[in-house]
Amino acid sequence: MVVSPLDQFSDPAMAPSPERPPLLATLRTRVLLMVVGVFAVLLVPAYFIFERISSETTLTLGSALASKQAQYDRYRGMAALDKELTLAGTLARDPAIMDWADNEFDPDVQARGLAAFEHYRAAFTDRSAFIVLDASGNYYFNDAQQSYSDDPYRYTVRSDNPRDGWYFTTRARGEGCYLNVDHDDVLRLTNVWINCVINREGRVLGIVGTGINLSAFIREVVDIDQPGIESMFVDATGAVQAHPDASLVDFHSLTKDIADQQTIFAMLDTEADRTALTRLMEGAREGGEGSVPTAMVSLAGSPMLVGVGYLGGIDWYNVTLMDPDVIVGQSLFQPVGGLALIVLLAAALGMTVLFKTAVLDRLETIEAGIDGLRQGKRGQIRLDRGNDEIGRLSRTLVAMVSAVTASQRDLERQVKERTEDLEDLVNRDSLTGIFNRRGVAQGFADFSDWARQRKTTIGLILIDVDGFKAINDSLGHATGDAVLIALAERLSQAIRRSDLCGRWGGDEFVVVIRGCDAAVLNRIAGELLEMTRTVPVPQDGAASPGLTASIGACVVSPGESLQRATDLADQALYRAKHEGRDRAVIVATEDDDTARVSA
Q1: Whole-model pTM above 0.70?
Q2: Domains and their CATH numbers in the chain
Q3: 99: closest CA among 208, 194, 200, 210?
């Protein structure tokens, strides 16, 4: 007799015992715990997403503010300097000044030049000006008090005086106006000096200019009384030219080596920050006056938003540093975070109610129907077929994903193995198992990149078996192949793991040595020459030594092509054969400086 599943439950003797499952074993409890767990898990990414959104919004707002602030700083800086630069440039082109520089000691010419000098001096903001005449090196100066109106000559610049380096550095540029923050020991002044070259038809006749009091310039341009914002001006090398803290200003930067300068790069925490600032400066320069790129950097352990503008007329950069937490506090986003939390709680509650309605209530219906069936109350049976479909679909999907995943992994493994086999087939010599010409070319390119990064050289060695045709003719090609295989094995064992060897073609082999100069190449060539002599040549069933080779080698400079390197090594190989074989000729330089290793 065939018994159906429903018949089993209709028979009280065959019905399962009505024991209540433990609390944690019920689906309701597990679902509740699952919802609580999901909610807890979602809180973590939700928090990070909130932090990310608030940080990005802060960065966006801060970047816009930093851009505006940098543009404002640039405007203030150029407003303070434009008039002075224009006047100084005009003074440098004044005919009376040029005539005086050409004929310094002619009384009439000198009088006209001094008159023009005084006329422009009175127009400068500081009411001071200077001029250095190149022919004599004499330095003339007068200030707002006209302290030197009777005799403006102050001193003579000398090339052997380090304090006069600013003049000779500026003079070497030939033309234009340049700024330098400096303290004049003779005049006892610390100024932002504007130096304009006097140039007549390509001849440098001297330098004229004026100075802006450093303290006044800082007070007017970079001293911003606003929390969280710091402004400064730097030159093209990053040397600080104006800063609210005068102790950070790099004096005499025009004549200093870059390593001795006090730069903004030294204020940053990491090399990555310094690289980022360098890119900002390059972007500001390439973008022109309207470009203010921004980025986040770390300064004294604190994240700072930096904006950089370029002052093209004087080749300076205005750098604005902003603390985002001070300028745009993240407390602004706390109401949004609270709202997101409420929404997340509501979603968790809604999910719980939906799951109860869509799953738990249906399971209770099935459970009630099974209980009614067990008790013989067939009229109370209400089977939820949808529940059965969900179960089968879940099992089917799991099985399908498992099968697809397994198939995909197996396919990826086969593809990887096939790719490796193809690479070996393309780059390996089928007879000897070492690299072929293609494999050597690829390895040489990698070695060249390595040498270029480390600014060193590599060595290339060509090895040609002497009398190999005679071996093939007298002993047969099988013996010749055995000799080539043996030589390849010896070469592979003789070189370092970081070097490579390959079969260049026929009976010719190539070795590429990493980090190799002429002396090392000479030694290795000699060792390979000696090693070759130990390769046996089978004769009449017995192994007997007697193999020799000719070697040509060269030192390869970074960036030199494989064709050029093999041409040099091939020339050296030709010399080795021409001079009697069984020897090595090493080309140390392109000027044919050679060394030889022979028997």
Answers
A1: no
A2: 58-83+226-328 (3.30.450.20), 93-216 (3.30.450.20), 428-598 (3.30.70.270)
A3: 200
